C-alpha cells in the first residue's frame, strides 16, 4: 500500500525556505525537489504549486504521455482522502431523562383474595 499523506502535511512542503517541493496531481503526491532544475516548463511553474494541488495546471500545460510516465519517478504517495469519522451526539443524550409524571401517592395495592389462587 502506498504512503498516505494529509493535505496539511503536503502544504508544508512548499519548496520555500529550503523545504522540499511536493505537488498533488490527481490525488497522488509528488516530490519534485530534484526535478525543479530539469523541468522543461521551468522551476517556477512547479514552485507556484508547491504544497498544493496542481492537477488543473498539469492538464492545462498539455503534458505528453512521456511526461506522465516521468511523473512516476517522483511519486511518493497518495492523498488520504478518507473523511474523518464524525461522531454526532445522539438525540437521546441531548434530551432530558423521562421524569415520573405521577404526582401524589401511588394507589395502594389492593389486597383482595378474589382471583388469588392458593391451591
Ligand atoms: C511531476 C510533475 C511534472 C512532471 C513530471 C512534468 C514534466 C514535464 C515534461 C517532461 C515536459 C516537457 C513536455 C512534455 O513532455 O509534455 C513538461 C513541460 C511543461 N510543464 Fe511540466 N511537469 C510536471 C508538472 C508541471 C506543473 C505542475 C506545471 C504547472 C504549470 C507544469 C507546466 C509545464 C509547462 C508549462 C510545460 C511546457 C514547457 C514548454 O513547452 O515550453 N508542469 N513538463
Automatic annotation (TrEMBL):
Alphabetical list of SMART domains matching this protein: Cyt-b5 (SM01117)
Single GO molecular function: heme binding
GO cellular component: membrane
Cytochrome b5 heme-binding domain span: 2-80
Gene3D superfamilies: Cytochrome b5-like heme/steroid binding domain (3.10.120.10)
Keywords assigned by UniProt, alphabetized: Heme, Iron, Membrane, Metal-binding, Transmembrane
Pfam family, one: Cyt-b5
PROSITE patterns in the cross-refs: CYTOCHROME_B5_1, CYTOCHROME_B5_2
Chain residue ranges for the region called Disordered: 98-119
Subcellular location: Membrane
Major location category of this protein: membrane
SUPFAM superfamilies: Cytochrome b5-like heme/steroid binding domain (SSF55856)
InterPro entries listed in its UniProt record: Cyt_B5-like_heme/steroid-bd (IPR001199), Cyt_B5-like_heme/steroid_sf (IPR036400), Cyt_B5_heme-BS (IPR018506), Cytochrome_b5 (IPR050668)
Assigned protein family: Belongs to the cytochrome b5 family.
Protein name as it appears in the record: Cytochrome b5
Organism: Drosophila rhopaloa
Amino acid at each position: 500500500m502506498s504512503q498516505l499523506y494529509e493535505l496539511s502535511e503536503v502544504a508544508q512542503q512548499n519548496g520555500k525556505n529550503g523545504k522540499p517541493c511536493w505537488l498533488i496531481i490527481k490525488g497522488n503526491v509528488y516530490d519534485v525537489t530534484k526535478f525543479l532544475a530539469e523541468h522543461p516548463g521551468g522551476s517556477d511553474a512547479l514552485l507556484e504549486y508547491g504544497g498544493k494541488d496542481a492537477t488543473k495546471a498539469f492538464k492545462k500545460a498539455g503534458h505528453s504521455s512521456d511526461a506522465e510516465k516521468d511523473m512516476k519517478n517522483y511519486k511518493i504517495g497518495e492523498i488520504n482522502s478518507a473523511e474523518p469519522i464524525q461522531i454526532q451526539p445522539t438525540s437521546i443524550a441531548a434530551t432530558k431523562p423521562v421524569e415520573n409524571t405521577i404526582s401524589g401517592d401511588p394507589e395502594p395495592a389492593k389486597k383482595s383474595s378474589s382471583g388469588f389462587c392458593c391451591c
